[in-house]
Amino acid sequence: MSLSLILLCVWLVLANVLALLPSRDHHWQRAYVLIIIGVPLLGWVTWANGPVIGLLALAGGISVLRWPVIYLGRWMRRQIGS
């Protein structure tokens, strides 16, 4: 297993542990940090292991950070509809 996949697994475990902890801002600050770390990590995983593994990593990240993705989709829909 490559270093990029090991770090991806650490990121996924960290994201799940952070989701279990209580938060006053509904986890948004943690989500921003996870996104900032996760985007370059996703690029590295895709570059090192190929696009199929990269798409699987993207699906895993979306499953963990689903609310930012939902809000992004709503924002994009509003921008296109205007």
Report on the structure:
With 82 residues, the chain is an all-alpha fold. It has one domain (3-81). The chain contains four helices and no strands. The chain has helices at 3-20, 28-49, 51-64, 66-81. Helix 1 runs antiparallel to helix 2, helix 1 packs parallel to helix 3 and helix 2 runs antiparallel to helix 3 (51-64). The chain is flat. The protein starts with a helix and ends with a helix. The model has no long low-confidence stretch (mean pLDDT 92).
Share of helical residues: over 70%
SS-derived structural category: mainly alpha
Distance between the termini: 46 Å
Along the chain, the helix and strand elements come as HHHH
- What oligomeric arrangement do these chains adopt? single chain
Low-confidence stretches: none
The domain count comes to: 1
| Largest sheet data | none
Helical element count? 4
Roughly what fraction of the amino acids lie in strands?
under 5%
Tell me the radius of gyration: 14 Å
How many individual β-strands?
0
Dominant shape:
flat
